[in-house]
């Protein structure tokens, strides 16, 4: 969402979270700007000077950097997301989207490629039991917590 843009709220509505007075870095390469970020549900609803905006929770971000999210274009987290799907190290860096599959992929697999991967996964008690992308959609969370 570009800076100084706002999703429309009906009169009397409020955001869930309002981050006020932060130094906003949007990842575009532009210099930071002072402003506010409003969140509604699981989405950024507005960015800019949001004077008069109301929220259930207001956080004063003065002196802090607000980074709405970065894309990791070369994540290589295919297996680590199976081990811990919270992705805390990525989130701590401000990464909210990752493109994976560079150099390796979680699927498709063959018996030969699975045999090569298994020793590294054994220490986490993981076993890849799929060979196609369709097979990867079978509840990764329970697989990662076994």
Describe the 3D structure.
- By secondary structure, this protein is an alpha/beta fold.
- It is built from four helices and eight strands.
- The protein has helices at residues 78-83, 88-92, 111-122, 140-145, and strands spanning 5-6, 15-24, 33-40, 43-48, 55-60, 65-66, 70-72, 95-98.
- The two termini are 38 Å apart.
- The mean pLDDT is 81.
Tally of alpha and pi helices: 4
Measured between the Cα atoms of the first and last residue, the distance is 38 Å
- In helices, the fraction of residues equals 10-25%
Mean pLDDT: 81
Secondary-structure element string: EEEEEEEHHEHH
Low-confidence stretches: none
What's the shape?
elongated
How big is the Rg? 20 Å
Largest sheet: 6 strands, mixed
Q: Which class do the helix and strand fractions yield?
A: alpha/beta
Strand residue content: 25-35%
Total beta strand runs? 8
SSE arrangement:
Layout: E1 5-6, E2 15-24, E3 33-40, E4 43-48, E5 55-60, E6 65-66, E7 70-72, H1 78-83, H2 88-92, E8 95-98, H3 111-122, H4 140-145
Parallel strand pairs: 2-5, 2-6, 7-8
Antiparallel strand pairs: 1-4, 2-3, 3-4
């Amino acid at each position: 969402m570009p800076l100084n843009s706002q999703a429309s709220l009906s009169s009397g509505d409020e955001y869930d979270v309002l981050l006020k007075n932060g130094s906003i870095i949007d990842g575009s390469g532009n210099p930071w700007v002072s402003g506010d970020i409003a969140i509604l549900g699981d989405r950024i609803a507005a960015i800019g000077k949001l004077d008069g905006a109301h929220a259930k929770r207001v956080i004063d971000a003065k002196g802090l950097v607000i980074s709405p999210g970065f894309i990791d274009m070369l994540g290589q987290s295919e297996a680590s997301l199976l081990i811990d799907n919270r992705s805390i190290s990525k989130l701590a860096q401000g990464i909210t989207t990752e493109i994976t599959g560079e150099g390796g992929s979680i699927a498709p697999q063959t018996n030969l490629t699975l045999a090569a991967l298994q020793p590294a996964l054994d220490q986490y008690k993981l076993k890849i039991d799929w060979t196609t992308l369709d097979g990867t959609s079978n509840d990764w969370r329970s697989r990662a917590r076994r």
